[in-house]
Amino acid sequence: MGTSSRVAAAIVVVLGLVLSLAVVCNGGKTSSFVRKVEKTADMPLDSDVFKVPPGYNAPQQVHITQGDQLGKAVIVSWVTVEEPGSNTVLYWSAYSKKQKSEGKVTTYKFYNYTSGYIHHTTIRNLKFNTKYYYVVGIGHTERQFWFITPPEVGPDVPYTFGLIGDLGQSFDSNKTLTHYELNPQKGQAVLFVGDLSYADKHPNHDNVRWDTWGRFTERSVAYQPWIWTAGNHEIDFAPDIGETKPFKPYTHRYHVPYKASGSTAPFWYSIKRASAYIIVLSSYSAYGKYTPQWTWLEQELPKVNRSETPWLIVLMHSPWYNSYNYHYMEGETMRVMYEPWFVQYKVDVVFAGHVHAYERSERISNVAYNIVNGICIPVKDQSAPVYITIGDGGNLEGLATNMTEPQPAYSAYREASFGHATFDIKNRTHAYYGWHQNQDGYAVTADSMWFFNRYHHPVDDSTSAQ
Ligand SMILES: *[C@@H]1O[C@H](CO)[C@@H](O)[C@H](O)[C@H]1NC(C)=O
Ligand SMILES: *[C@@H]1O[C@H](CO)[C@@H](O)[C@H](O)[C@H]1NC(C)=O
Ligand SMILES: *[C@@H]1O[C@H](CO)[C@@H](O)[C@H](O)[C@H]1NC(C)=O
Ligand SMILES: *[C@@H]1O[C@H](CO)[C@@H](O)[C@H](O)[C@H]1NC(C)=O
Ligand SMILES: *[C@@H]1O[C@H](CO)[C@@H](O)[C@H](O)[C@H]1NC(C)=O
Ligand SMILES: [Fe+2]
């Protein structure tokens, strides 16, 4: 090497060092992808996705969710408009004869809106890993659907979860759902992190928009369970029009199996599914010390048996780690209450929504601060979860594009685009996580990570240069 080329090589090395240092100091990657800013609008009421199924009193807005703690029960829900009709679900598999299950019907009023007849029927004692067909609308117009029960709970059971948040019913929402459906990494159940219909953005919280959302999402949620988390757009608290009971439309329409996990309210609960233990929390219910949610969670975390369910996943709506200039620090008080537990019990991953963009954190915690010591900077922590904000479903409020600068060190990747993700559990040690944005092809991941289980394989799985 001549002197000049040696100097050039040295410059390259120094430049490389400076660049990688810059990455470390300023956190991870902020995507350079700049999405074209388009008008975000709800799909009009006469859109194809909102079509009412034909026939007298035909069931509409059919949706299912897990109906017990283990995955042997399914709650089937639907709405009829002309008359209550039947609460019966007829179901069968290739290995069992036709059986019936009977449920209940409810209605509610919201300002000057009166709901249709909302049916909820729980089917129990199902066999694991079995395809079931089911029929609703007995006696009038019958409609048939199917679902596949999860495999029996166990440590090495592969399972793929989809992740969707803040979906709404805009043209972008329809793109997100389509991308989820056509993702070759087939999701088997959706972990939904809150903010469903955004009906509350319409005059008087026009609850017709809850019905249209139910019809829009039926094409997925009638065939695979969506696991519900309550967001702020589920509160529907509107004292100006006399509506003072929070969560009225949401709790009438979307049932969850909260009693099965000893919860006393439908806003926080847990389920086991395949090799995952999923804890759903409520950012909009009291969570301070001695409250029902706090008491439940304190008793819940020690129950998680990682030899049975290696993957401990928490869902909530408002993120604890969020470096966008939207909803900034709204999750902070809950973080202060619960983060030490998440580290103690080695939660693998926390999914949240609320911020209409995407962000993934490093494994970090911020639990050293005690009011007087001033130690309040997030630090790398291999016992801590990865925090993922996936509030990018595409609702009418549009994208969150304004980020805090510089990107904090704990933030591994952030991008203001609509999309969804999948969490693909392979066995007790490995899970592949991929985030898909709506502008890419169906198979493309814009951000991805191999998760190493915090209990069975607590090896550093960070994606940063360090
Ligand atoms: C409810 O009231 C609003 C105005 O306050 C009106 O536009 C709408 O048509 C009413 N809806 C029904 C179902 O009466
Ligand atoms: C929604 O997406 C589906 C599937 O891609 C498509 O068939 C339908 O026309 C779309 N509807 C609207 C209103 O964008
Ligand atoms: C945890 O699960 C394993 C595997 O299913 C089981 O053998 C063990 O008894 C369980 N431990 C407790 C404390 O229940
Ligand atoms: C981004 O948010 C900050 C903090 O709220 C604000 O000061 C700034 O004006 C915003 N920038 C844009 C372009 O909106
Ligand atoms: C778990 O899955 C990972 C990723 O597919 C694989 O590399 C590893 O060998 C698996 N572990 C076992 C014990 O099979
Ligand atoms: Fe929200």
List cofactors, ions and other ligands. Answer: 2-acetamido-2-deoxy-beta-D-glucopyranose, fe (ii) ion
**And the CATH topology of one domain?**
Purple Acid Phosphatase, chain A, domain 2
Radius of gyration based on Cα positions: 23 Å
Q: What structural category do the secondary elements indicate?
A: alpha+beta
Q: How much strand? A: 25-35%
The largest sheet is: 8 strands, mixed
| CA distance, first residue to last residue | 31 Å
Coarse shape: globular
Please provide the count of β strands. 26
SSE topology sketch:
Blueprint (H helix, E strand, L loop, with lengths): L2 H23 L3 E2 L29 E7 L7 E7 L7 E6 L2 E7 L1 E3 L2 E2 L2 E2 L2 E7 L7 E6 L6 E6 L10 E6 L6 H12 L6 E4 L15 H14 L4 E2 L20 H6 L15 E5 L2 E5 L11 H9 L10 E5 L16 H13 L4 E4 L5 E4 L2 E2 L13 E2 L5 E5 L20 E5 L3 E7 L4 E8 L9 E6 L14
Parallel strand pairs: 1-23, 12-13, 13-14, 16-17, 17-18, 18-22
Antiparallel strand pairs: 2-3, 3-9, 4-5, 4-10, 6-9, 7-8, 10-11, 12-24, 15-16, 19-22, 19-23, 20-21, 24-25, 25-26
One 2-acetamido-2-deoxy-beta-D-glucopyranose (NAG) binds next to helix 2.
What would the keywords be for this entry?
binds 2-acetamido-2-deoxy-beta-D-glucopyranose, 466 residues, binds fe (ii) ion, hydrolase, alpha+beta, Purple Acid Phosphatase, chain A, domain 2, single chain, eight-stranded mixed beta sheet, 26 strands, disordered N terminus, six-stranded mixed beta sheet
Would you write up a description of this structure?
The protein is α+β, with helices and mostly antiparallel strands. The protein has a domain at about 155-195 and about 265-465: Metallo-dependent phosphatases (Purple Acid Phosphatase, chain A, domain 2). It contains 6 helices and 26 strands. The model is unreliable at about 1-25 (pLDDT under 50). The structure holds 2-acetamido-2-deoxy-beta-D-glucopyranose (NAG) (5 copies) and fe (ii) ion (FE2).
